[in-house]
Design goal:
Helices cover 29% and strands 22% of the residues. It is of the alpha+beta class.
């Protein structure tokens, strides 16, 4: 899935694996395009529903993030299935998670924040990805209890600013990536998933018994530290199809 064969409106860079995730998982970084001419060219590649959604954004920055990331996703998926980006069609797969029509085994996920987007793709296992710009002006404590477990809250309270804020954004992105990999919706039960504060190595969530997110215990997650000022995380299933 090396994206090398066609020129794109926005830069699309595949991140080096470095042993962090399986070889069948590809992670790409996208730089958001804020130029009207670039957005116009990318809009031509999007489907009708995507264009309608893009038109509902009132702020240029929000529209640019959405259009750039959806355009890049179409280009990358088109490479995977040997099609034109504009010809791709999507439908709801398991649990309502989008999939490419006629290619239900091709798992993908997107996220965008600030000036960057991330795309994860795998033909062998479910994947989820999330990125958040670490906003120094954001009072994370106002939503911490909606995101963090009791143990995570205890760990955060032991940190000094700005380390506590950075750790919170990493916890948040890890949980978002895991839930998106499951194809489950984000809700107030995120504290039922517990993750480690940012570190390297094999990382696996601990899930409360009986949780609707119980399947997350069979997933792993890895941090994506390549973008300064952002927290990013990729989640993927332990077992690939066919293993």
């Amino acid at each position: 899935m090396d994206f090398m064969r066609q020129e794109t409106v926005v830069p699309i860079d595949r991140l080096h694996n470095g042993g962090r995730w399986p070889d069948d998982v590809a992670v790409y970084r996208i730089d958001v395009c804020e130029l009207d001419v670039g957005l116009g060219r990318m809009m031509e590649t999007l489907g009708e529903q995507e264009r309608l959604r893009a038109g509902r954004y009132r702020q240029l920055a929000d529209k640019a993030r959405f259009v750039s990331t959806r355009y890049a996703l179409r280009c990358l998926l088109a490479e995977c299935v040997n099609a034109l980006p504009a010809n791709l069609r999507f439908n709801a797969g398991a649990h309502g998670k989008p999939c490419v029509t006629d290619y239900p085994a091709l798992s993908f996920n997107v996220s965008h924040s600030g000036l960057h987007g991330l795309v994860a793709i795998s033909s062998r296992r479910p994947v989820g990805i999330d990125i958040e710009r670490i906003d120094s002006g954001f009072n994370w404590k106002t939503i911490a209890e909606l995101v963090c477990s009791t143990e995570e809250m205890r760990s955060l309270s032991a940190l000094r600013p700005p380390f506590a804020q950075h750790a919170f954004f990493h916890i948040w992105t890890a949980k978002e990536a895991l839930v998106k990999a499951l194809g489950a919706g984000i809700d107030e039960r995120l504290p039922e998933i517990a993750v480690e504060l940012p570190q390297s190595g094999m990382l696996r969530p601990v899930v409360r018994a009986g949780s609707r997110f119980a399947a997350a215990a069979e997933f792993q997650y890895r941090w994506i530290p390549e973008l300064d000022g952002y927290a990013g995380c990729i989640a993927f299933a332990d077992t690939a199809s066919g293993d």
